[in-house]
UniProtKB/TrEMBL annotation:
The protein's name in its UniProt record: Ig-like domain-containing protein
Native source organism of the sequence: Cirrhinus mrigala (Mrigala)
Gene3D superfamilies reported for this sequence: Immunoglobulins
SUPFAM superfamilies the record matches: Immunoglobulin
Domain of life: Eukaryota
Domain annotation Ig-like: ranges: 1-80, 82-158
InterPro entries to which the protein is assigned, alphabetical: Ig-like_dom, Ig-like_dom_sf, Ig-like_fold, Ig_sub, Ig_sub2
Amino acid sequence: NVSVFINGFVEIVEGDSVTLNCSSDSNPPALNFSWFKGEAFVGSGRIYSISKISSDHSGEYKCKSINRHGEKYSDAVTLNIMNVSVSITGSAEIVEGDSVTLICSSDSNPPAEISWFKENQSSAVGSGQSFSALQSGRFYCEAHNQHGSQRSDAVTVN
């Protein structure tokens, strides 16, 4: 019986550290452990750690346990890493009447729903990947999927 446990948060955000532990109940005890992301070998040992995780680390991980009688793979665990950022499109100098569009970029699996907020306001001011700012203020987007939510840094529109 081989299984994988994740030490850390259920919601994994870019920059976090994650540790995967491989547990094997065999007789004689397993002495050799290998880690795979999909079909690619990524490491050895009972523990596989990822520091400063990024969206490139998203995917299915499994461990293989080996003793003298054979080998066995664990079920796969899926790491979903969320990354959210905001950019502004328009001229560098914004004057009253100009169009200012904010774009929210969310890298998550499954894809996230996006809401827009103005700082110091509790209710959303928009939804979707882009948002047209019609007034000055600090705005941020929040991406939400079944695994959790992540807020971007705020951008200032003057």
